């Protein structure tokens, strides 16, 4: 039986009790009403008629015609109200005697008339007493029945009121306690009430849910522990140092490589705040310092200096930060290879300059008419060899500049230099290339430009490199804008061309060594990388802005000479 059905039956029972009590009360009240009405209608009126007739007899009916009329009128009323046994016979006899009295006008009939009136009154009075006793019996009977039914209904209703809410509340209370236990991850909680209604179905469903959660918890926990051990083993086998932090900067795990670098026991790290550890460890402080991002970290370990690159990995779930992982990658091998490469390039470049110079000298001699005249084909070949030799000499120079930059041995001759001086030198250096493509330089100089504190030769080299690239990517008969403005304590140089521009996906790599965008003229890919190093070595910044098909703007800044 469902709860809905039980509620309907309970409410139907209460409704039946109300109907029963109301019906019985109405029935017995109606009985009492009828008895009372009968007494008034049947007996009390007859006694009233008799009383009025007696009063008329007390008057002198022989002389008082009104008394005769009153008696006759009340007698007629009495003849219409014959309700009791014997009342009819007495009324008939009263009529006979009264008629004799009226026709003979003899007073000897008066005692007989009074006797009949007395008998009628006695009959009605006895009826009143009898009906009153019947009404009292009906009233007492109704009262007894109502008492029994009321007490019975009260007992049943009291039992219903006490037990039915408990029947509803007890399962709900057990269910609430069960849900709280499940919330606290006590998946062994069960509901122990059973019934064939919705509560029984609810208990069955709840117990099944708790059983599945318990199975899932134990199976998941075992799987998680297994995966945790496997991940820890993998992390410990890595050659890179790995440190895991939660969202509150507490250390979750540290692999063996990181322990060797920090020189701290695992028990003193795991579970501790990384900020507290940083107070005692310079390396941890450097790892937490974001200003050291993208910088090589030099650490003395294993009896030698080693180099590491730092990488942050953010662990997120639905845009909520769960923690961070710091990875220190050992790049000592690459650092050593890079140093060997730099030395090798420096040596080769230096050695190449001598034969290239000899080739250029030989070319100069061949161009001398004293050696002999050359035909046009020979002059073309000679010019081609001369161009390639010049290109080879330029590449060798860039490589030497690169080795100087990578070795950290950039020799800068700082001096107070006028920006106009740098612009004039660079524009003259590339003037011939611009003329060949009919490119016009438009120079926009801000008024009253201050001097910059820089190496004039290196800065001019950078500007020449930017102008050379602008000419290379510009169309014939176009223009290049050269601008110089002052921004706070910096002077900003700008070179803008209107060529095909640079695709946005390559902008972040444009200053990387050896990088060349696809479909661009062949080169070494070193010019912009060297330019970046030269500018940053002078405490300046270099950047590029471009939209594909709209040209490019290269800008670099240098500090103002403070005097």
From TrEMBL:
Keyword Membrane appears in the UniProt entry: yes
Catalyzed reactions: ATP + protein L-histidine = ADP + protein N-phospho-L-histidine
Residues in PAS domain copies: 227-275
The protein's enzyme class: transferase
Transmembrane segments: 12-29
Residue ranges of every copy of the Histidine kinase domain listed in the record: 347-562
Pfam family, one: HAMP
Annotated HAMP domain residues: 166-218
Organism domain of life: Bacteria
Coiled-coil portions: none
InterPro entries named among the record's database cross-references: BphY/WalK/GraS-like, HAMP_dom, HATPase_C_sf, HATPase_dom, His_kinase_dom, HisK_dim/P_dom, HisK_dim/P_sf, HlyB_4HB_MCP
Membrane topology: Multi-pass membrane protein
GO MF annotation list: ATP binding
Matches recorded under SUPFAM superfamilies: ATPase domain of HSP90 chaperone/DNA topoisomerase II/histidine kinase, HAMP domain-like, Homodimeric domain of signal transducing histidine kinase, PYP-like sensor domain (PAS domain)
Enzyme Commission identifier(s): 2.7.13.3
Protein name: histidine kinase
Organism: Flectobacillus roseus
């Amino acid at each position: 039986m469902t709860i809905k059905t039980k509620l309907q039956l309970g409410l139907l029972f209460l409704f039946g009790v109300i109907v029963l009590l109301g019906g019985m009360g109405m029935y017995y009240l109606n009985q009492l009403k009828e008895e009372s009405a009968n007494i008034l209608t049947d007996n009390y009126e007859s006694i009233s008629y008799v009383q009025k007739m007696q009063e008329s007899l007390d008057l002198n009916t022989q002389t008082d015609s009104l008394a005769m009329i009153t008696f006759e009128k009340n007698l007629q009323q009495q003849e219409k109200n014959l309700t009791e046994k014997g009342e009819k016979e007495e009324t008939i006899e009263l009529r006979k005697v009264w008629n004799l009295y009226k026709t003979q006008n003899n007073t000897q009939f008066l005692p007989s008339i009074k006797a009949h009136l007395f008998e009628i009154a006695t009959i009605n009075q006895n009826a009143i007493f009898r009906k009153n006793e019947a009404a009292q019996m009906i009233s007492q009977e109704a009262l007894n029945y109502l008492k029994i039914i009321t007490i019975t209904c009260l007992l049943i209703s009291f039992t219903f009121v006490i037990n039915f809410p408990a029947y509803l509340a007890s399962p709900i209370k057990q269910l609430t306690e069960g849900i709280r236990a499940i919330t606290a991850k006590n998946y062994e909680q069960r509901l122990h009430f059973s019934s064939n209604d919705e509560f029984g179905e609810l208990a069955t469903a709840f117990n099944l849910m708790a059983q599945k959660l318990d199975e899932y918890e134990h199976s998941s926990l075992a799987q998680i522990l297994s995966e945790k051990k496997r991940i820890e083993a993998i992390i410990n086998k890595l050659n890179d140092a790995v440190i895991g932090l939660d969202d509150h900067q507490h250390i979750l795990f540290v692999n063996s490589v990181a322990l060797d670098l920090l020189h701290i026991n695992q028990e003193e790290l795991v579970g501790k705040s990384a900020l507290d550890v940083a107070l005692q460890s310079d390396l941890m402080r450097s790892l937490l310092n974001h200003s050291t991002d993208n910088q090589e970290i030099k650490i003395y370990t294993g009896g030698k200096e080693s180099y590491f690159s730092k990488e942050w990995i953010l662990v997120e779930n639905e845009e909520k930060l769960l923690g961070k992982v710091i990875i220190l990658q050992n790049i000592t091998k690459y650092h050593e290879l890079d140093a060997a490469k730099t030395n090798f390039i420096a040596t080769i470049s230096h050695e190449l300059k001598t034969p290239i110079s000899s080739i250029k000298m030989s070319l100069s001699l061949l161009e001398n008419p004293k050696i002999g005249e050359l035909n046009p084909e020979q002059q073309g070949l000679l010019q081609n060899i001369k161009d390639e030799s010049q290109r080879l000499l330029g590449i060798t120079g860039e490589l030497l500049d690169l080795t100087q930059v990578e070795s950290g041995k950039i020799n800068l001759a700082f001096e107070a230099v006028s920006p106009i001086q740098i612009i004039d030198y660079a524009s003259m250096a590339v003037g011939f290339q611009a003329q060949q493509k009919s490119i016009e330089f438009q120079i926009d100089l801000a008024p009253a430009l201050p001097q910059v504190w820089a190496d004039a030769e290196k800065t001019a080299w950078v500007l020449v490199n930017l102008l050379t690239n602008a000419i290379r990517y510009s169309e014939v008969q176009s223009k290049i804008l050269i601008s110089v403005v002052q921004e706070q304590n910096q002077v900003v140089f700008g070179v803008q061309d209107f060529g095909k521009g640079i695709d946005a996906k390559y902008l972040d790599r444009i200053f990387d060594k050896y990088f060349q965008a696809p479909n661009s003229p062949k080169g070494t890919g070193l010019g912009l990388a060297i330019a970046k190093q030269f500018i940053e070595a002078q405490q300046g910044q270099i950047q590029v802005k471009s939209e594909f098909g709209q040209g490019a703007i290269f800008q670099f800044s240098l500090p103002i000479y403070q005097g």
